[in-house]
Amino acid sequence: MDIIVCVKRVPDVAEAEVDIDSSGRGIQLGTLGYVINEWDNFAVEAAVSLVEAHGGKVTAVTVGGEDDEDVLRRALAMGADEALHLTDPVFEGSDSFGIAGILSQAVADIPYDLLLTGAVSGDVGGGRVGPMLAAMAGIPHVCLATELSVEGSTARVRHEVEGGLERVVELDLPALVTVQTGMNEPRYVSVLGIRKAGRKPLRTAGTAEIGLDPDTVGPAAVRVRIDEMFLPPRGEGAEILAGNDEDTVAALVDRLRQQGGI
Ligand SMILES: Cc1cc2nc3c(=O)[nH]c(=O)nc-3n(C[C@H](O)[C@H](O)[C@H](O)COP(=O)(O)OP(=O)(O)OC[C@H]3O[C@@H](n4cnc5c(N)ncnc54)[C@H](O)[C@@H]3O)c2cc1C
To answer: 84 alpha carbon to ligand 1 midpoint, in Å?
Structure first.
């Protein structure tokens, strides 16, 4: 079984204080570290585990600049067999539709049974690339998968739906699945592992190699323009409890009692 897994390198905003940059349309990246998008870590683990069980090949793919190659080296260290770095100056500033278009054009030349993406990315959080890619590739898809297994030419997926419900569905392969966090336990990646994975094949390709019209990507082709990005103003009813852990926990319990919460 051949699996393509799309991975994205993102600024690590989970624990950081995030500020808006001078353009007012993005975040200040200066001091932030970069990591594999959390959802993609689970997607790589799912791909590698399925191929370990069924045989086949995992190809990790990213769209990004020179530094984004790191995320492919990491996927290779986790067990992906080969990697494809889609990189071209004209890709910069693309929106999700542009990114999905680049990915769909590139994967059209690679045989696959399953296409995996993260459900969403930790920086922009659009959650749009997976479903758009499935539509462009003309294959069925399911979002927010929490379990994934394959039997013959069918994928069985447990996934989250509205209202806190979960559902189990079956899809004919080839299909695309967007992976939710918590699906599995992503394996540990050591520095040595990343170094050893340096021997695995990593190919780069731009518009010419994948046969993509450059006018369909980049800022000029954007369909969703970011007008403004801002930190939401603190709401009227919000209260930040100050002090050490003991004081804040006591104050929180107090508030909950006052409101009838406990
Ligand atoms: C300089 C710059 C300018 C931008 N301008 C715009 C703009 O004008 N309008 C706009 O809407 N957006 C803009 N963006 C945001 C950019 O389009 C998104 O980051 C990108 O499209 C991915 O969308 P997402 O993060 O919402 O992905 P999601 O849909 O949230 O990601 C889901 C999954 O898709 C896959 N995926 C996403 N991105 C990639 C990738 N690069 N490579 C491989 N797999 C991937 C991963 O598996 C990921 O888990 C800009 C970004 C940059 C850096």
So the answer is: 17
